Amino acid sequence: MNAQTNNADQGFKLNYKRTFIIGFAFFGILLLWQVYDTWCPTFLTELFKNSLGISNEKEVQYLVGIMMALDNLAALILLPIFGRISDKTHTKIGKRMPYILVGTFVCAVAFPFIPVLFHYSNTVGVIILMAIVVLFAMMYRNPAVALMPDMTPKPLRSKANGIINIMGYLGGAFATVVGFVFILSDYLGTSQYADGSLKPHTWAYQNIWAIEGPFLVGSVLMLISAVVLFVLVKENKIADEMKDEMARGDAVSQTTDKVDDDKPMSKANKVMLWLILGAEFFWFMADNGVRTFLNNYVIYGTHSSSVGTGILTIIGGVGSVIGFALGGLIASKIGRKYTVLGGLGLAVLGYLIWIIMTFAVGLPNGSLPIWLFVIWFVKDFGMSLVHVNSFPMVVELCNSKKIGAFTGYYYASSMAAQTITPIALGALLMAPSFDWFLLPIYAGICVAISFVIFFFVKNIKTKKTTFSKGLSAIGEAEE
After folding, report:
1. Helix (H, G, I), strand (E, B) or coil at 5
2. Would you put residue 189 in left (φ > 0), alpha (ψ -120 to 50) or beta?
3. pTM flag (> 0.70)
4. pLDDT digits (tens, 9 = 90+) for 269-302
5. 58: how many CB neighbours lie within 10 A of its CB?
6. What is the CATH number of domain 13-473?
7. CA distance 239 to 244
8. Dihedral over alpha carbons 335, 336, 341, 347 (to 10 degrees)
9. CA-based diameter of the chain, in Å?
């Protein structure tokens, strides 16, 4: 008995190199969604305005919301399916890799044709291609995310998830920087000065490359990320090498009841799972609602250049990367529950300040104010603490045979929120008494509800577990 306990307490050492390489999968995921979520809602706004002969963009936001929600509805159904299928898949290149490679390839081929069809005002074609991209993105998203817990012992997953998310945000940063060169608002002719007069068009106006560039760069980088992952990560070999280490990690997992591969999930662990997923639903209601309509808020609500969206994204990304780097360390000191609650509290604070400033000085007009950039940094730093710890809390509750399925549950909750929130927010924006000032109010309420739900999650602290020290384990802490 003592020998078993001592063996379980031996040092856990995170393989940083392999974790960064696995992160290339998430690099491709966030790269795709950054471009998709930033540009496609505006494409749909313009297409619906032209098709319906409407000049006021607010009148078509409910349609934009429905289309973005249908994509997420497909994801809600497909993510758990591909998670379960990949759990049961066995091939020479692994159980996750086939889905990652096929999904990435089809997405990369289809993605650049979305702006081409928009340029030629083909509404049906744009919608069909968006559906194809979403379908195959779901094929690789769940298996790609499941790679990390497949190869990382439970006590190290918050730290590993931080690294994975940093890699993802680097992918998003690539997409954002490209948006500084190819400016959507210039192409549309919607950039205005503070007095409401249109800014002069640049060389990009009505040039197809102004909208093709981000999508084409995104496709190339997605392919590169998949090739790097395939060449450097030998899934079956690593799974065999990590078998004993994974078993020792399971012995010190942070769950109410012990997880056993051969026993059904306990009632206490089920309650914990449902609380986490319920809270996750509402913080994604906030996050996706703002993200879906952010570029439209900047272009139509504040009459600013779409470059402002990129700057907000970069600043938020910096805050997120800092949070991802610190999230595991903070959780090792105060527990994952209170780290998540602290992050949600910071997000609520950010939205509250945004609401107060909006009603105090009104919507920005012609340029984005400094205070909005500060808010973006604070709220995204807070939400990074949430994301880096919440996913490990979910897969902590499952046995080694169901990682893909529980990854599917995690993303099903987020996708359920992302199915509902574009429709709900788009419909609210149609109301005569509401305007773009509604964004922070809506998001703030959703995050506050999330905070209340997550408060009832039990905080589990394992017995003191030793982690490796030295240069190879910089940043690791004792739990």
Report:
1. helix
2. left
3. no
4. 888 889 999 999 999 999 888 888 888 888 888 8
5. 19
6. 1.20.1250.20
7. 10
8. 130
9. 78
